[in-house]
Amino acid sequence: MLRALQETVDYIKRKTENFEPEVGIILGTGLGGLVKEMEVSQQLLYANIPNFPISTLEFHSGKLIFGTLEGKKVVAMQGRLHYYEGYSMQQITFPVRVMKMLGIKNLFVSNAAGSLNPAFKKGDLMIIEDHINLQPDNPLRGINDSDLGPRFPDMSQPYNRELINKATELARSVDIACHKGVYVAVSGPNLETKAEYRYLRIIGADAVGMSTVPEVIVANHMALPVFAVSVLTDEGFPEDLQPFSLEDILETAGRAEPKMTEILKGLIASV
């Protein structure tokens, strides 16, 4: 892996004239608009980057975008990768390792998720405090390379407490409904049944999605502080479960995105 990582990093440095990002951003489903706030200096298609997986989703643009945001040098993934696309966990998390080797000091992650907590409504934001991993593989499975991180990384605090506190204060100061909760990752791509929603709530989750956890595991493996936020795009309440579609999810994500963008911009300015 180290050889592939170095090849990828060397290519990106050549193409971006040795751009050194301070912050890495992973933008989730329907949440690519933060890029509009950036002063973009370079864009690289995933398809043109050596060893880089290609996003197969028609609503993910598949670009690595370099520029400045709130005075910070940033690299943003506009279009993330998912286990349900057929990729291995190592492929899904390869971009996180690349961003770390490019020099980022903090990783900011967003996703679209379904609410499991009746107090958390569609269109609200949820800062992720902890997670439950129900995906069937782990990105750290296999031979460990100690140059990347320890064999058994600690996960007692996978999401950075200081960033969580700052985000909470930012949301409160601008009157944005922003909860804190536990995110559960499932493999997808189907949405959940009533019984599954009930089970996920019972085991302690406040929101469910199909991403984020693999990237967070690898970030912790590489000692990279993480902040993650979910836009709650649907409600998985088994007592009153309503059918919904991808179009519904994207529409809700689009309406809620400006709130998420405001918080992320404030956080990035503070680091």
From TrEMBL:
NCBIfam families referenced in this protein's UniProt entry, alphabetically: PNPH, PNPH-PUNA-XAPA, PRK08202.1
Function statement: The purine nucleoside phosphorylases catalyze the phosphorolytic breakdown of the N-glycosidic bond in the beta-(deoxy)ribonucleoside molecules, with the formation of the corresponding free purine bases and pentose-1-phosphate.
GO function terms (MF aspect): purine-nucleoside phosphorylase activity
GO BP term, example: nucleoside metabolic process
Alphabetically ordered keywords of this record: Glycosyltransferase, Phosphoprotein, Transferase
InterPro entries in UniProt: Nucleoside_phosphorylase_d (IPR000845), Nucleoside_phosphorylase_sf (IPR035994), Pur_Nuc_Pase_Ino/Guo-sp (IPR011270), Purine_phosphorylase (IPR011268), Purine_phosphorylase-2_CS (IPR018099)
Tree of life domain: Bacteria
GO cellular component terms attached to this protein's record: cytoplasm
Protein name: Purine nucleoside phosphorylase
One Pfam family cited in the UniProt record for this chain: PNP_UDP_1
EC number: 2.4.2.1
Pathway: Purine metabolism; purine nucleoside salvage
UniProt KW Glycosyltransferase keyword: yes
